[in-house]
Specification:
With 425 residues, the protein is an alpha+beta fold. Helices cover 40% and strands 24% of the residues. A six-stranded antiparallel sheet has the order 6-7-18-17-14-15. The chain has a five-stranded parallel sheet with strand order 2-1-3-4-5, with helices on both faces. Strands 8-9-12-13-16 form a five-stranded antiparallel sheet. Strand 1, helix 2 and strand 2 form a beta-alpha-beta unit. Helix 3 packs parallel to helix 4. The longest helix has 55 residues. It is rod-shaped. The N and C termini lie far apart (112 Å).
C-alpha cells in the first residue's frame, strides 16, 4: 500500500501549478472506453469532461477550450479527424493538445492525422503507463508553447509601448523640424542688385546644418554655411543656438555685428570665428563642434572677406564660366581653445557667384562606393540648366545630386548651401 501511495504521489506531483494540463476532454462513442480512460485520468488528478460524440464535444469546446483532448478516431457522424480540424479552428488563439485514439498504425493514416492537427496518437486498448507518458510529453510541449505565448505577449506589449513612445518622439521631431525651418524665414533675399539664396535639406527629421544671411545696411551683408558635428537632436539643438548667435532679426544678439551709435556694422570674419569659438569653449558640457565658412561682402565694390573653419572650400563661379576653389581649411569652431583663424579675400565682378556648401555634397556616396568630391560637385554644376539663378539653381543642383547618390545608402548626411550672386538684376 505504501508503494502504491508513493507512486500516486509521484504521478500527481507533476499536476501542480507548473503543469499546464488541468482540464481533459474525453471523446468516444463507447461508454466503456470512456470509463476506462476517465478512471486512469482521475488517478492522475485531472478534471475530466466527457462527450459521446464529436458534435457534443464541439459544443463543450465552444464554452471553454480544454487543455487536452483524447478523441476516438472512428465515430458515427463527425469522426475524430473532422473533430480535430474543427477544434483547431476554435483554438486559433489558444493551443490545446490533441491525442487521437486509434487502431490505425499505417504511416499514411498517421500522416493524415497529423495533417488534421493531431499532436499524438494512442493505440487502443490504451495502456495506462503509455497514457501517462504521452500526457507528460504533451504537458512539456504545452508548457513551452504557453511560455512562448507569454513571451510573445510581453514582446507585443513592449513593442506597442515602444511604438507609442516612438510616435511621441516622431511628433516632437516633426515640430522640431518646423521650428528649425522657421530659422530660415526666407530662402532668397535681394540686397540691391545682389542676391543670397539658401538650401537646407536634412537627412532626417532635423539636421545639424545651418545656413543664413543678414545685413545691417550700409552696403554690406554677411552670409554663412555651418555644419555641426554629429547628427540628430543634439546637433539640431546646437544649430538653434548658433542661429541665435547669428540672428538675422535681433542684431543686438548677433556676434557678427557691433553697434556704433545708431547703426550696426559687421565684424571681420576672423573675429566672428574667434568669438564663436570662445563662446563654445566656455560653455560647460558642450562636446560638439562645427565647421563654418562665414563671408562678408562689400556690395559697393565686390570685395568679399571670408573665414574658413574646417568647412569645405568656398567656390567662386565666375561669369565667364571659370570655377575657383579658395581658402586654406582652418580649424573647426569649438574644438580647441585659443584657435587662430585667418581671413582671406577675393574680388568679385558683376555676374560672379559664390557658393558655400556642406560636405553633404562632396562626401555624398555614389553608386560605385566613391564620394562625390569637389571635382564631382563641379560636374553637377555643369549639369544645371543654363541661365538658372538663385533658388532655381540650388534646387537643380540638389536634384542632380540625388540622381548620382547611391540608391542603397541614399542621403546619409544633411545637405545645405548658400549662394551669393553679385550684381545680378
Amino acid at each position: 500500500m505504501g508503494i502504491v501511495q508513493q507512486e500516486r504521489t509521484e504521478i500527481t506531483a507533476g499536476q501542480g501549478e507548473s503543469n499546464p494540463i488541468r482540464r481533459v476532454l474525453v471523446v468516444d462513442d463507447s461508454r466503456l472506453q470512456r470509463r476506462i480512460l476517465c478512471s486512469s485520468l482521475k488517478k492522475l488528478g485531472y478534471d475530466i469532461v466527457e462527450a459521446d460524440s464529436a458534435e457534443k464535444a464541439l459544443e463543450i469546446c465552444e464554452q471553454g477550450l480544454p487543455d487536452l483532448v483524447l478523441s476516438d478516431w472512428m465515430m458515427p457522424g463527425m469522426n475524430g479527424l473532422e473533430f480535430c480540424r474543427s477544434f483547431r479552428d476554435l483554438s486559433a488563439g489558444e493551443y490545446g493538445y490533441f491525442i487521437l485514439l486509434t487502431s490505425k498504425s499505417e504511416t499514411t493514416e498517421i500522416a493524415e492525422g497529423l495533417d488534421a492537427g493531431a499532436d499524438d496518437f494512442l493505440t487502443k486498448p490504451v495502456n495506462p503507463d503509455e497514457l501517462r507518458a504521452r500526457i507528460s510529453a504533451g504537458a512539456r510541449i504545452l508548457r513551452m508553447q504557453r511560455e512562448l505565448s507569454d513571451a510573445n505577449r510581453v514582446v507585443t506589449e513592449t513593442l506597442a509601448r515602444l511604438q507609442s513612445v516612438y510616435d511621441g518622439i516622431d511628433r516632437d521631431l516633426m515640430q522640431a523640424r518646423k521650428i528649425q525651418q522657421s530659422m530660415l524665414p526666407e530662402l532668397t533675399r535681394q540686397f540691391g542688385a545682389s542676391q543670397v539664396s539658401l538650401l537646407l535639406k536634412p537627412c532626417g527629421h532635423i539636421g545639424g546644418d545651418l545656413v543664413g544671411m543678414f545685413s545691417p545696411g550700409l552696403g554690406t551683408l554677411g552670409f554663412y554655411s555651418i555644419d555641426v558635428s554629429g547628427h540628430g537632436i543634439t546637433s539640431a539643438m546646437m544649430t538653434a543656438r548658433l542661429g541665435g548667435y547669428l540672428s538675422s532679426s535681433h542684431f543686438d544678439q548677433n556676434l557678427a555685428m557691433k553697434r556704433f551709435n545708431y547703426h550696426y556694422r559687421l565684424n571681420p570674419p576672423e573675429d566672428v570665428a574667434r568669438l564663436l569659438n570662445s563662446r563654445l569653449i566656455a560653455d560647460p558640457g558642450i562636446e560638439e563642434y562645427f565647421t563654418m565658412v562665414y563671408a562678408v561682402v562689400d556690395l559697393h565694390n565686390g570685395r568679399i572677406k571670408m573665414v574658413q573653419a574646417g568647412h569645405p572650400h568656398p567656390l567662386i563661379l565666375r561669369r565667364d564660366g571659370r570655377a575657383e576653389y579658395i581658402g586654406e581649411g582652418g580649424l573647426p569652431v569649438g574644438l580647441m581653445p585659443d584657435a587662430h583663424y585667418q581671413q582671406f579675400e577675393a574680388q568679385l565682378e558683376v555676374g560672379d557667384r559664390v557658393l558655400l556648401y556642406s560636405d553633404g555634397f562632396t562626401e555624398c556616396r555614389l553608386e560605385n562606393g566613391d564620394m562625390l568630391e569637389p571635382e564631382g560637385l563641379l560636374e553637377l554644376i555643369k549639369k544645371c540648366r543654363p541661365g538658372q539663378t538663385g533658388q532655381e539653381f540650388l534646387d537643380d543642383l540638389f536634384w542632380n545630386l540625388t540622381q548620382v547618390m547611391s540608391s542603397e545608402h541614399g542621403m546619409e548626411d544633411d545637405v545645405s548651401a548658400a549662394l551669393f550672386e553679385y550684381g545680378t538684376s
